[in-house]
């Protein structure tokens, strides 16, 4: 994988410092230097101490990454929403696990992506899962195609520059049509899975807006995350007294839907390598859309 930049007036410095300025970590610089990658300036291989001048073209050739032999490849289809040389963004279906675990080594998002890479004969076949979704949550998931793309997207996440938007069906009528839930989340002392609102928890902020009040005392809600804690939306909505439809782990009823009614509907971010502003959307899955339509009549 090759990444190119042109040096501007503000960029006149040593190559190593230039790369760091572009978000290339010391670890990636070291791996490139010692594991088969290269640094080129105007087509000539150079050391990282090279002094750069305005107009120079810098080329970073990343070394080939060795794929994880323990990750099997499966060949079920992917619903691809966006793809370029650096990222793959998919619409994850309900019921599919994001990454394998000791309890589940079969079909996952990661295994399907590996199968897709093999089918396409991509040079880099390592699967970098940047964002994950719970098994029974559907919607947008982002995979990086190389370690640099992964690192740069991680920086966006850490600085809250990747906007993630969700749609959910919650029980009850929200007293306020929109607002901010600011409540720290911690692991439950009684469960390895469940999370709870607790003073000793990590800062957790969710913004919400009611889209429509439906039959059966159900609210159709749009939500966005300011932080990214496990089960954050599910915990926060339950804490407000409005658990998600189907989410029995956090007090929701399965009468209308047998899984949590939660869908990641869109991502919005500035591409860290091209500067392009991207918005990627995924439509509601069939079961949630059908329920919304029925309750809106």
UniProtKB/TrEMBL annotation:
<comment type="similarity">
    <text>Belongs to the pseudouridine synthase RluA family.</text>
</comment>
<dbReference type="Pfam" id="PF00849">
    <property type="entry name" value="PseudoU_synth_2"/>
</dbReference>
<feature type="active site">
    <location>
        <position position="134"/>
    </location>
</feature>
<dbReference type="InterPro" id="IPR006225">
    <property type="entry name" value="PsdUridine_synth_RluC/D"/>
</dbReference>
<feature type="domain" description="Pseudouridine synthase RsuA/RluA-like">
    <location>
        <begin position="86"/>
        <end position="239"/>
    </location>
</feature>
<dbReference type="InterPro" id="IPR050188">
    <property type="entry name" value="RluA_PseudoU_synthase"/>
</dbReference>
<dbReference type="InterPro" id="IPR006224">
    <property type="entry name" value="PsdUridine_synth_RluA-like_CS"/>
</dbReference>
<comment type="function">
    <text>Responsible for synthesis of pseudouridine from uracil.</text>
</comment>
<dbReference type="GO" id="GO:0003723">
    <property type="term" value="F:RNA binding"/>
</dbReference>
<dbReference type="GO" id="GO:0009982">
    <property type="term" value="F:pseudouridine synthase activity"/>
</dbReference>
<protein>
    <recommendedName>
        <fullName>Pseudouridine synthase</fullName>
        <ecNumber>5.4.99.-</ecNumber>
    </recommendedName>
</protein>
<dbReference type="InterPro" id="IPR020103">
    <property type="entry name" value="PsdUridine_synth_cat_dom_sf"/>
</dbReference>
<keyword id="KW-0413">Isomerase</keyword>
<dbReference type="InterPro" id="IPR006145">
    <property type="entry name" value="PsdUridine_synth_RsuA/RluA"/>
</dbReference>
<dbReference type="GO" id="GO:0140098">
    <property type="term" value="F:catalytic activity, acting on RNA"/>
</dbReference>
<dbReference type="GO" id="GO:0000455">
    <property type="term" value="P:enzyme-directed rRNA pseudouridine synthesis"/>
</dbReference>
């Amino acid at each position: 994988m090759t990444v190119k930049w042109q040096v501007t007036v503000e960029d006149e410095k040593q190559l190593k410092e230039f790369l760091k300025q572009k978000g290339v970590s010391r670890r990636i610089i070291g791996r490139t230097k010692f594991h088969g990658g290269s640094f080129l300036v105007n087509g000539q291989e150079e050391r990282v101490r090279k002094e750069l001048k305005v107009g120079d073209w810098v080329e970073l050739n990343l070394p080939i990454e060795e794929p994880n032999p323990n990750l099997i490849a499966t060949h079920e289809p992917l619903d691809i929403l966006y793809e370029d040389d650096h990222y793959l963004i998919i619409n994850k279906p309900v019921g599919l696990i994001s990454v394998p675990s000791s309890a589940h080594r079969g079909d996952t998002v990661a295994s399907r992506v590996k199968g897709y890479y093999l089918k396409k004969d991509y040079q880099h076949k390592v699967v970098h899962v940047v964002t994950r979704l719970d098994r029974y949550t559907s919607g947008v998931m982002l995979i990086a195609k190389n370690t640099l793309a992964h690192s740069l997207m991680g920086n966006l996440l850490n600085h809250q520059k990747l906007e993630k938007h969700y749609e959910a069906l919650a029980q009850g009528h929200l007293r306020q049509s929109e607002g901010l839930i600011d409540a720290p989340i911690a692991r439950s002392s009684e469960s390895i899975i469940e999370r709870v609102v607790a003073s000793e928890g990590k800062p957790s902020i969710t913004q919400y807006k009611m889209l429509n009040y439906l039959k059966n005392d159900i609210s159709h809600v749009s939500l966005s995350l300011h932080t990214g804690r496990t089960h954050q939306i599910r915990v926060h909505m339950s804490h407000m007294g409005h658990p998600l439809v189907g989410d029995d782990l956090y007090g929701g009823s399965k009468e209308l839907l047998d899984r949590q009614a939660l869908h990641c509907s869109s991502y919005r971010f500035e591409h860290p390598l091209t500067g392009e502003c991207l918005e990627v959307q995924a439509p509601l899955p069939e079961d949630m859309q059908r329920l919304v339509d029925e309750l809106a009549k």
